[in-house]
Every structure is written in structure tokens, then in C-alpha cells.
Design brief:
It is built from 8 helices and 18 strands. The longest helix has 18 residues.
């Protein structure tokens, strides 16, 4: 098969490349330029220069061609605009999910057309074909599993996707990198939002939103206990970077009109837990949705935690999600991702 591999410069996609070659694929590597040059100009140098050095070294070692494609315009229009709109509304966005949906498995598909049979990535996920449908299944490593970030893919997008690392754990991938003597075998995993690289998310928000002084208010007493620089820097359940002594303090509520952040030291109590929320129209990867006869689980954030739940259809393509146990970190704008028997079924946005 002619396969396009999205190569990032990290260990995961580099090992995925060699697995594809071992399986007999005719591989061309692609590096997608999605960094934001305007926002990053003040850093003095491009944070992705190291990525490109590693990408070129990996391709040279493997003897495969490399193409570099810019998606900066598409990224600003499809992902950045969404991220900033959510932040301004006081919600908690997840641009990584939109990056997969609109860029890696969206705009990139449009560019390559029918030149390649498949598009492969270094995601920890499995594609399983059943009854002429492509299903998305979790990877065996529950901590590294990345199906959460792929939950907005359509059936058409998933049918063309390959995940060579789907059956492997992180330790196995690291071991393979050593065996293959990859140029980046000792490189640390990248962290944070996909398009920011070494730039902190708060710095990105500050560039676009600026700062605006507001009150930190103790939730139980209504007493002002400090100041903050803008509600857009905070999310429900946040514990770090609040800047108050005598804690730990947690963000429990945001007032976007008055620019107030409500905090509490008793966040671990049941007072701030809830077991219901509403989501907008769900993207079902397979149109059958879910099997009502089987247990349904939901992830409210990336990680191994799965919560038993039920779904009730409401008006306007909305659904009420009822959790079997309460959760403290439910925030508008986050994605609720649904699972049955290790299959990732799709996701909806918490509203």
C-alpha cells in the first residue's frame, strides 16, 4: 500500500514508520507545519527547528522521502478560531481533538487526494474493521491510549487511518526505538497542546486575550481573597497557579461577566460534585451509535478513568448524561467521549 505517515520528530511516529516498512508499505513521510509564526515571533527562534532536524534524520536513516506541508491558514481558521471563541465564552476547549478532525485527518486528506491509500500516525489506538465499518478501539496501555483525541473522526476519516502502535505499550515502543537505533531514541515525549510546542498555553491566551484584573472570591463566604489576571486563564477544578497561601485552593466557578473566579479549599467534598450534564449532538463514529443492552462508559478527560453512565435524548440533538458516580471536574467546552467494550464510539461537547 502507498501510505502517508505523519512524522512529528518524536519517538512514537518514528517507530510507527519502521513498523510500516516491516509490513511492506511504500511510505512517504509528511511533516505538517501548523505553528503560528505571528504568535511565536517574540520567542526569537522557531521551537520546531529541533523537530525538523529529527524528522529529517529519521527519514534519511530509513531511506524514505519527506514532504513538508504548511497548514497554518487552515489551522487558524478551523482550530484557533474555535479555541479562542471557547476561551472568551469561559469554556474549556480541547484544540487537540479538533486538530485531528480538521487538520491531520481533514485538510491533509484534501491535499493528498487519492495519491495514498492510507494515512498513518503514531497515535496509541486501534482501528478494527467489522462488517464493512471501521471501529476505533482503545490501545492496551490505558494511560497512553489516545482514542479520546480521535473521538470526533468520521467513519470516512477512520477507514483511511492506520495506527501501527495500536497493539503496543509505551515501554515496548521505547525498546523498539533502542533496537532500531533511531536518531531520536532518547528524546523525551512532547507535552501540551499540539500547535504550541514549547510555548505555554497561558502565554498563547495572553497574546490574544491580554490581561484584566479581577477578584478571587472564596466560594463559601463571598470574601475577596486575592486577584487574578483574567477568567480565561482558569478552568473548573484547577488547583495550580492560583497564587493563594493556605491551600490547596481549587477553582469551582467562573463569572465571565464580572470577571470573578470563585475558589474553595473544600473542593474534595461532595459539595462540588455532580452526576449529570448536557452535551451537544454526538459524533458517532459508526452510525449505529451504542448498544443499549451493554454498559456505556464515558471519559470526561484524557486518561484511564472511565465512568459508567446512561444517555437520555433531549430536544435539539442534545443528550442528558447521567453518571453512576459523581465527578468534580465537569466543565463546559470539554468533550465527553463514550465507550463500550473497549470501543470508542464517539463524543459530544459538554454545554
Amino acid at each position: 500500500m502507498n501510505t502517508a505517515l505523519l512524522l512529528s520528530g518524536g519517538v512514537d511516529s518514528s517507530v510507527a514508520l519502521h513498523l510500516l516498512l516491516q509490513q511492506g508499505h511504500n511510505v512517504t513521510a509528511f511533516y505538517l507545519k501548523i505553528w503560528l509564526e505571528d504568535e511565536l515571533a517574540f520567542l526569537g527562534s522557531c521551537p520546531w527547528e529541533d523537530d525538523l532536524l529529527y524528522v529529517r534524520a529519521v527519514c534519511e536513516q530509513a531511506g524514505i522521502p519527506l514532504r513538508i506541508i504548511s497548514f497554518q491558514k487552515e489551522y487558524k481558521e478551523r482550530v484557533i478560531a474555535y479555541t479562542l471563541a471557547e476561551i472568551k465564552a469561559g469554556r474549556t476547549p480541547n484544540p487537540d481533538i479538533l486538530c485531528n478532525q480538521y487538520i491531520k485527518f481533514g485538510a491533509f486528506y484534501d491535499v493528498i487526494g487519492s495519491e495514498f491509500d492510507f494515512v498513518a500516525t503514531g497515535h496509541y489506538a486501534r482501528r478494527v474493521d467489522k462488517n464493512n465499518k471501521a471501529w476505533l478501539y482503545q490501545a492496551p496501555d490505558p494511560v497512553k491510549d489516545q482514542t479520546y483525541f480521535l473521538s470526533q473522526l468520521s467513519q470516512e476519516q477512520l477507514k483511511r487511518a492506520l495506527f501501527p502502535l495500536g497493539e503496543l505499550c509505551k515501554q515496548e515502543v521505547r525498546a523498539l526505538a533502542e533496537t532500531l537505533n533511531l536518531p531520536n531514541k532518547a528524546r523525551r515525549d512532547s507535552q501540551g497542546v499540539c500547535f504550541l510546542g514549547k510555548l505555554k498555553f497561558d502565554e498563547f491566551i495572553k497574546y490574544h486575550q491580554g490581561e484584566r484584573l479581577g477578584d478571587l472570591v472564596e466560594h463559601e463566604t463571598g470574601k475577596k481573597v486575592g486577584e487574578h489576571k483574567g477568567f480565561w486563564f482558569y478552568t473548573i477544578g484547577q488547583r495550580h497557579s492560583i497564587g493563594l497561601s493556605g491551600g490547596p485552593w481549587y477553582v469551582v466557578k467562573k463569572d465571565t461577566i464580572l470577571n470573578k473566579i470563585y475558589v474553595s479549599r473544600t473542593y474534595n467534598t461532595e459539595d462540588f460534585s455532580r452526576n449529570t450534564f448536557v452535551i451537544a449532538k454526538i459524533n458517532w463514529i459508526v452510525e449505529l451509535g451504542y448498544d443499549p443492552a451493554q454498559a456505556l462508559f464515558v471519559k470526561l478527560r484524557h486518561g484511564p478513568a472511565l465512568l459508567l453512565c446512561t444517555l437520555t435524548a433531549l430536544d435539539n440533538d442534545q443528550f442528558l448524561v447521567t453518571l453512576e458516580q459523581k465527578d468534580k471536574g465537569i466543565a463546559a467546552g470539554q468533550f465527553a467521549v463514550f465507550y463500550q467494550a473497549n470501543a470508542c464510539l464517539g463524543s459530544g461537547t459538554i454545554i
